[in-house]
């Protein structure tokens, strides 16, 4: 992946729940300078019929803000212009230290004139979501998704829905395998990464490969840990950048594999499962 955009921040709104976040949004937006306000009100608003200034602020915020943590969302002007796809060819992330929103895309895979899409729904909400659920989640943005997956012919749409359900089932079952089923558990992870690839949205595959690394570390299979940690690290560098927190976390484990949590807690065993 390549860094294609570093966007400056207009403002961040915080809140432990949606109501609090909205209150914070109104107060922060009112404190913007005149020029910043002008910029903000240029952004799209799917609910622009209201005459009430607070309704307009909330309408713009809901449509354009990027979730950057569990409680905070950010308004970044240029990144707001990107359209959504359920099979996006780019991914955004928040760079905590810099205070930037960054977008990474595999520019070698893009052809001239191809639109760059991000996903407005987080990976966790795309797993297991049928085409209809996704349309529902996107309703607040005021459009019906006609991305490459959502406009598939019916039979392929059904196949996509089946894959999504399977991915979600595996994700939920991965923590519950018994210690003697570790090879099956790794097999399920490998299967999921392939399903994600077939689905055309392999973002978050690093979470699965990271799980595989932790599982192999439990059994003190350091060669396999190295294999899975390398996969995870490469994905995170490509999608979030080398200096991102997510890549740095993995890099630190890479330096001393035996330091990973739960290392060597289970019976020593060697696995030959890979992608
Ligand atoms: Zn879609």
Automatic annotation (TrEMBL):
InterPro entries membership: SET_dom (IPR001214), SET_dom_sf (IPR046341), SET_domain_protein (IPR053185)
Species assigned in the record: Piloderma croceum (strain F 1598)
SUPFAM superfamilies assigned: SET domain (SSF82199)
PANTHER family found in the cross-reference section: SET DOMAIN-CONTAINING PROTEIN 5
Sequence ranges assigned to domain SET in this UniProt record: 1-121
Lineage: Eukaryota, Fungi, Dikarya, Basidiomycota, Agaricomycotina
Name under which the protein is recorded: SET domain-containing protein
């Amino acid at each position: 992946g390549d860094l294609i955009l570093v966007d400056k921040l207009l403002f961040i709104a915080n809140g432990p729940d949606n109501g609090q976040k909205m209150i914070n949004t109104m107060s922060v937006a009112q404190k913007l300078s005149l020029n910043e306000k002008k910029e903000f009100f240029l952004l799209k608003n799917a609910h622009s019929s209201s005459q009430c200034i607070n309704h307009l602020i909330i309408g713009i915020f809901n449509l354009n803000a990027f979730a950057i943590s569990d409680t905070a969302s950010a308004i970044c002007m240029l990144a707001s212009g990107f359209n959504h796809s359920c099979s996006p060819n780019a991914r955004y992330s928040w760079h905590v230290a810099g205070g930037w929103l960054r977008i990474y895309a595999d520019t070698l895979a893009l052809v001239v004139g191809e639109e760059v899409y991000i996903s407005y729904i987080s990976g966790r909400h795309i797993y297991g979501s049928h085409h209809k659920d996704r349309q529902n989640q996107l309703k607040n943005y005021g459009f019906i998704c006609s991305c490459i997956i959502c406009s598939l012919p019916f039979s392929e749409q059904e196949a996509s829905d089946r894959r999504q359900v399977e991915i979600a089932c595996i994700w939920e079952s991965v923590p519950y395998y018994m210690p003697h089923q570790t090879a099956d558990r790794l097999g399920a992870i490998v299967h999921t990464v392939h399903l994600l690839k077939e689905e055309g949205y392999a973002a978050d595959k690093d979470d699965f490969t990271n799980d595989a690394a932790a599982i192999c570390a439990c059994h003190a299979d350091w060669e396999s840990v190295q294999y899975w940690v390398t996969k995870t690290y490469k994905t995170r560098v490509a999608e979030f950048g080398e200096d991102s927190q997510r890549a740095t976390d993995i890099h630190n484990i890479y330096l001393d594999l035996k330091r990973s949590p739960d290392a060597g807690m289970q019976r020593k065993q060697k696995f030959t499962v890979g992608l």
